[in-house]
Amino acid sequence: MTLFTTSASDNVVHLSKESLVHLRTSRQVMMSCMIGNALEWFDFVIYGYFVVIFGQLFFPNANHLTQILASWGIFWSGFLARPLGSIVFGHIGDKTSRKYALTLSIFMMAIPTTLMGMLPTYQQVGMLAPILLIFLRAVQGFAIGGEYTGSMVFLVEHAPMGKRGVWGSWASFSAVLGVIIGSSLVGVLHHSLAQDSMQIWGWRIPFLLSALGSIVGIYIRIHLSDPSVYLEVKARKTKESIPFKDLMLNHKSKIGMIIMLDFLTAVGFFIIAIFLATYFRSYLDYSERTALAIHTLNMLVLALAILVGGWLSDRVGRNIVMGLSCVGIMIFSYPLFQLIQIGGHFAIIFVQASLAIMFGLFFGVIPTALAEIMPTNVRFSGLSIGHNLCMAIIGGGTPFLATHLIHNTNDLSSPAYLLIFSGAVSFCSLWFIKDRYRMALD
User: Fold this and answer.
1) What's the CA gap between 77 and 95, in Å, rounded?
2) DSSP, residue by residue, 108-119
3) Is residue 104 part of a domain?
């Protein structure tokens, strides 16, 4: 009897230790992915907030519209290097180690982001200034080619069965967290500094501060372990296996599925989370502080909608949640943009919050839905290439296209057309994608 009691007690203690180890590992996995994603999107949002300042500092001889378009054009140029980065980091992630690819990507991303805070302006070095800005954006884009998608894969592959949706949603949540931190920091700077100080040196502060987050992210990722499902598949593959070759020979159609499904992500995020902050200031004449306050509030709404979307997808399915979100975007985007013209704080908050909720439900599901399309042996490569091709062709150019539409149509509601079209493309892709929310990952 004593032996039985002792054995049972030992088992309880053993299980308790296993549970603590699992809990600690889960926290490390989520934290490491969230830091990298937050830094990536933090950079996007601070560039978006400073797009007018960049235009003035790097293209001082152009008119106001040309300055903004040039700044958004450089923003887009960073995305053109992402597909190449996705091939390199995808190969490392599938062939060598998920953990190593993610650690390398955040390290390479930190260097150009920090150097952007040290850039000379046009007045100091002439045309060399915009050339250096384009170069740093390109290097940054290359590194980002494996960051967000690698985090998706890492989270989903570590997730327990039945919780992949909510685990994957943390990848999107952390992207919005980066936006919230960025908008809050820029708001503090605008509140604390005079406009002249902001233009001379204040804009450099967020880029320099990102180096601190990168150091923390690198430290955490070094101490992670690769997902067991990946290690099992890797052990069965031959040394001659080349993920990119396998992907091109056997899974090209799945890359097409990823691009189509990801279409709304590419357009929706950059309209709702990046472009609207500039839109409020440039076209509705809101002050910097008011625009940032409204934008930050609605990013909190978006973050909550993301977690709800991931949670719902584990219960009713990925396709149902994403399909309803796409339909909502297609039906309500233009009427909501029309409502903006009425003016007033309440109307602006309501419009962006409504768009954030509809898009957030979709954005919360997308990491898991994309990861479930690809088999484990080429998941990192396939997801990275598909997502980054979509971002390079569509996402990075969305603010540029939205600005161009407004000035060529004289219709402040014209960015809604981009949302409607992207919602239709993603909705159509659902007809070709099998919902795997109740299936094993591979």
Assistant:
1) 29
2) HHHHHHHHHTT-
3) yes
From CA 372, how far away is CA 368, in angstroms rounded?
6
Distance of CA 356 to the CA centre of its chain: 15
Q: Is 290 helix (H, G, I), strand (E, B) or coil?
A: helix
- Sign of the dihedral through C-alpha 206, 207, 208, 214: positive
In a domain, 142, yes or no: yes
> What does the pLDDT look like over 293-344, one tens digit per residue?
888 899 999 999 999 999 999 999 999 999 999 999 999 999 999 998 887 8
Please list, in sequence order, all residues whose beta carbon lies within 8 angstroms of the beta carbon of residue 361, skipping any fewer than 6 positions away.
Answer: 305, 306, 308, 309, 312, 321, 322, 324, 325
Token pair for residue 252?
């090209």
User: Count of domains in the chain?
Assistant: 1
Three-state SS at 433? coil
94's CB contacts (< 8 A; 6+ apart) are 243, 377, 378, 379, 380, 381
Q: What are the CB-based long-range contacts (under 8 Å, 24+) for 415-419? A: 415/271, 415/275, 415/279, 415/337, 416/333, 416/334, 416/336, 416/337, 417/334, 418/267, 418/271, 419/264, 419/267, 419/268, 419/271, 419/329, 419/333, 419/355
For residue 177, which amino acid is it? L
Angle formed at CA 306 by CA 300 and CA 307, multiple of 5 degrees:
100
Task: Write the CATH number for 86.
Answer: 1.20.1250.20
Tokens of 54: 């960049």
Range of the domain at 269: 29-224+244-432
Flag whether 3 is in a domain. no
Query: What type of residue is 299?
Result: M
DSSP letters for 217-230: HHHHHHT----HHH
Lookup: tokens for 174: 């952390």
Whether this prediction's pTM lies above 0.70 is answered by yes
Question: What tokens does 124 get?
Answer: 């100091």
Question: Is 380 in contact with 94 (CB distance < 8 Å)?
Answer: yes
Taking only the tens place, the pLDDT of each residue in 384-423 is 999 999 988 888 788 889 988 998 999 999 999 999 999 9
The answer to whether residue 9 sits within a structural domain is no
